[in-house]
Amino acid sequence: MSLSVDIRKKLADGKREFRLDVQFELEGNFQVLYGPSGAGKSLTLKAIAGLLKPDSGSIRFQGKTYFDSESDTHIPPEKRNLGYLSQNYGLFPHLTVRKNIEFGLKGLFQIGLGKSDTGSVAKLMELFEIQEAANSYPRFLSGGQKQRVALARALARNPEILLLDEPFAALNPDLRQKMREELKNLRDRIQIPILLISHDKIDSDFFGVSPLYMEHGKIAYGPVGEN
Ligand SMILES: Nc1ncnc2c1ncn2[C@@H]1O[C@H](COP(=O)(O)OP(=O)(O)OP(=O)(O)O)[C@@H](O)[C@H]1O
């Protein structure tokens, strides 16, 4: 991936103020953004996804400008062609597993799926081994199954990058390790760049990358040899 982030954002909710001031450039297909709770990791990911508009700066991905305050460019999230997984997975409780994934494919305004669409939904359910839960609602799924559905939904649109916000945080320790292994396998199979947020150093160690470390709204250090 070639991702360049250089953004500033001031957030205030009355009593508290938080300043995000983030600069980094990423090459390679997998990176972990790591740091303590409240460091500004989720805000950074949201800005890349287009869900948070920075006050100033720029965000560029694979040569495309997603955000640039100088030229007043702010591409909306649905036009950024990325898969974004929030901390709670964001599944729609009133939609079955199949419908949740179809939503990923077609968005809110679908008017029926074509044959190739139903084929890709079936393939995704197979890839994540959730075919048996196709007609179940999210509340009947385990944490690991929910995460697989969310990943399948994020991949349905054939994104150019996957942004994962603490994908293991909601899982119990056993499942967490299993899902780490699953994600590692997925990474090796799908060849889509992944940027993963974690407050646990284990994640960057597990995936064999030197992380970008963030605290107090800033990148404190980057992969060895960069900054
Ligand atoms: N709208 C807002 N107004 C003021 N402060 C905010 C707002 N949104 C987030 N913050 C603050 O910004 C800081 C960074 O939040 P963020 O969610 O990015 O942290 P994080 O590094 O992802 O932490 P965690 O690992 O706990 O999710 C936090 O202190 C949070 O309280």
Automatic annotation (TrEMBL):
<keyword id="KW-0067">ATP-binding</keyword>
<keyword id="KW-0547">Nucleotide-binding</keyword>
<dbReference type="InterPro" id="IPR027417">
    <property type="entry name" value="P-loop_NTPase"/>
</dbReference>
<dbReference type="InterPro" id="IPR003593">
    <property type="entry name" value="AAA+_ATPase"/>
</dbReference>
<dbReference type="InterPro" id="IPR003439">
    <property type="entry name" value="ABC_transporter-like_ATP-bd"/>
</dbReference>
<dbReference type="InterPro" id="IPR017871">
    <property type="entry name" value="ABC_transporter-like_CS"/>
</dbReference>
<dbReference type="GO" id="GO:0005524">
    <property type="term" value="F:ATP binding"/>
</dbReference>
<dbReference type="InterPro" id="IPR050093">
    <property type="entry name" value="ABC_SmlMolc_Importer"/>
</dbReference>
<protein>
    <submittedName>
        <fullName>ATP-binding cassette domain-containing protein</fullName>
    </submittedName>
</protein>
<dbReference type="Pfam" id="PF00005">
    <property type="entry name" value="ABC_tran"/>
</dbReference>
<keyword id="KW-0813">Transport</keyword>
<feature type="domain" description="ABC transporter">
    <location>
        <begin position="2"/>
        <end position="227"/>
    </location>
</feature>
<dbReference type="GO" id="GO:0016887">
    <property type="term" value="F:ATP hydrolysis activity"/>
</dbReference>
